[in-house]
Specification:
Length: 175
C-alpha cells in the first residue's frame, strides 16, 4: 500500500512539475511578444536576446537591445520604463516577483546568428578558426555557408572564410 502511495505521489509531483513548466513557457512567450511589441515604438532598436533566470528568489528578465548608432543609458531607461509599464499588465501571470533589466548587447558580444552578422555588416570583426588563426577586418558579406572579410594590410583583399571552420567571431575592439 505504501508503494502505491509513493508511486501516486511521484506521478502527481511529476504532473505538477510539467504544469509549472508549461506555465513558464506560456509566460515566456507572452513576455517575448510583449517585448517585441514594445520595441516597435523605438525607431531602430532591436531585441538581440531575452534572458530569464532566477536569482535570490526572483525572476530576472533581461532584455539585450541594439541599434546601429549604439545604445546609451537614455535608451536603456526609455525601453525599461516602457517595458516595465507593459509587463505590469501581465504581472499576475508571472510565477514570482520579477526584476526587469535592460542592457545593450555589449561591445564584445559574440556574433553567432544571421541577425548578429547582419548587425555587424560593415564593421570591424575578429575571427578565430579551427587552426587558431586570428583574422580581423571589415565584414562585407555573409550567408549560411561563409563570410567575406575585407582585410587591410600589405595586400588588401577580401578573404572568404567558411562559417563551419569558425570557432569565435566577435567585434574587433580598438583601445
Amino acid at each position: 500500500m505504501s508503494e502505491r502511495r509513493l508511486t501516486l505521489s511521484f506521478v502527481k509531483g511529476f504532473c505538477m512539475a510539467e504544469q509549472a513548466k508549461l506555465i513558464e513557457d506560456s509566460v515566456r512567450l507572452d513576455i517575448e511578444k510583449l517585448v517585441a511589441e514594445t520595441l516597435l515604438a523605438f525607431e531602430g532598436v532591436e531585441l538581440v536576446e531575452l534572458g530569464f533566470k532566477k536569482e535570490y528568489g526572483k525572476l530576472n528578465v533581461t532584455a539585450y537591445i541594439w541599434k546601429k548608432a549604439g545604445i546609451d543609458l537614455n535608451d536603456c531607461e526609455a525601453v525599461h520604463n516602457a517595458l516595465s509599464q507593459n509587463l505590469d499588465a501581465i504581472e499576475a501571470e508571472l510565477p514570482d516577483a520579477y526584476i526587469l533589466n535592460v542592457s545593450s548587447s555589449g561591445l564584445d558580444r559574440k556574433i553567432v546568428s544571421n541577425d548578429d552578422f547582419r548587425r555587424a555588416l560593415d564593421t570591424e570583426i575578429e575571427v578565430v578558426d579551427n587552426a587558431k588563426n586570428k583574422i580581423h577586418g571589415i565584414l562585407k558579406e555573409y550567408d549560411d555557408e561563409k563570410i567575406v572579410i575585407y582585410v587591410n594590410g600589405k595586400k588588401p583583399q577580401d578573404k572568404v572564410i567558411e562559417r563551419k571552420t569558425l570557432t569565435k567571431v566577435q567585434p574587433y575592439i580598438r583601445f
